């Protein structure tokens, strides 16, 4: 066995020996499917949480709290309001792409969670950035349009998205607000990501 192979999660698991995807045989795919089922069940939620946790100590650029603490504060507020588990998890991850994908971070989070959440949650994630502009009254950037959300006025998820932004997003950027330990959210993330995924195709 080559010395530089990455370790496998479980003892007794096997590597596919073929070095190229187009050389895989049916048995290779079946092996991967079997091992992947176990892998994803344990690793997907852990990985999602690690994406957040990796930013826990990040310095910021001017907000009183960094993006990680904003995310935790927002999810904590949703939890304290008695929102359901999906809503809390959506809130926790709504800005997970904020630094790596700033101009489309809503779409980033939506792509990650859409297979496991409702259309309403997906809609909130995708558009929360644009709805947030409604509250940035004195912003000098013309791209930040306070009326940008109006193109969706009357949509069935308009009110929920406006409420999400107003209640959980624009109010959770200050020091001194409640921040639950991320361990509180971990079992919720695991349960949401273990739902049978919907297949979402590119438009
Ligand atoms: Fe955001
Ligand atoms: Fe946010």
Could you say how many structural domains there are in total? 1
Ligand catalogue = fe (ii) ion
Structural class: mainly alpha
The CATH architecture would be Orthogonal Bundle
User: What is the CATH class name?
Assistant: Mainly Alpha
Rg result = 20 Å
Query: What is the CATH topology descriptor?
Result: Hypothetical protein af1432
Strand fraction: under 5%
Give the helix/strand layout.
Layout: H1 26-53, H2 67-80, H3 85-93, H4 105-113, H5 119-132, H6 158-169, H7 182-193
Bound molecules: fe (ii) ion (FE2) (2 copies).
One fe (ii) ion is lined by residues 70, 94-95, 169.
Outline:
The protein has helices at residues 26-53, 67-80, 85-93, 105-113, 119-132, 158-169, 182-193. With 203 residues, it is mainly α.
Walk me through what this model shows:
With 203 residues, the chain is mainly α. The protein has a single domain (1-203), classed as Hypothetical protein af1432 (Orthogonal Bundle). The protein has seven helices and no strands. α2 packs antiparallel against α3 and α3 (85-93) crosses α7. The model has no long low-confidence stretch (mean pLDDT 96). One fe (ii) ion binds at residues 70, 94-95, 169.
Notable traits:
mainly alpha; binds fe (ii) ion; 0% strand; Hypothetical protein af1432; elongated; 48% helix; 203 residues
């Amino acid at each position: 066995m080559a010395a530089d192979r990455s370790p496998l999660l479980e003892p007794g698991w096997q590597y596919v020996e073929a070095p190229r995807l187009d050389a895989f045989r049916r048995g290779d795919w079946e092996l991967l499917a079997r091992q992947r089922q176990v892998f994803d069940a344990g690793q997907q939620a852990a990985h999602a949480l690690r994406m957040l946790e990796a930013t826990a100590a990040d310095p910021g650029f001017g907000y009183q709290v960094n993006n990680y603490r904003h995310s935790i504060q927002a999810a904590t507020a949703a939890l304290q309001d008695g929102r359901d588990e999906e809503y809390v998890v959506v809130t926790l991850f709504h800005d997970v792409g904020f630094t790596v994908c700033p101009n489309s971070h809503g779409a980033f989070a939506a792509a990650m969670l859409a297979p496991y959440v409702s259309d309403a949650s997906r809609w909130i994630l995708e558009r929360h950035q644009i709805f947030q502009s409604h509250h940035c009254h004195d912003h000098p950037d013309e791209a930040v349009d306070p009326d940008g959300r109006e193109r969706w006025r009357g949509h069935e998820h308009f009110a929920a998205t406006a409420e999400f932004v107003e209640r959980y997003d624009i109010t959770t950027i200050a020091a001194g607000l409640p921040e639950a330990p991320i361990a509180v959210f971990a079992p919720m993330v695991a349960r949401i990501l273990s739902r049978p995924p919907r297949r979402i195709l590119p438009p």
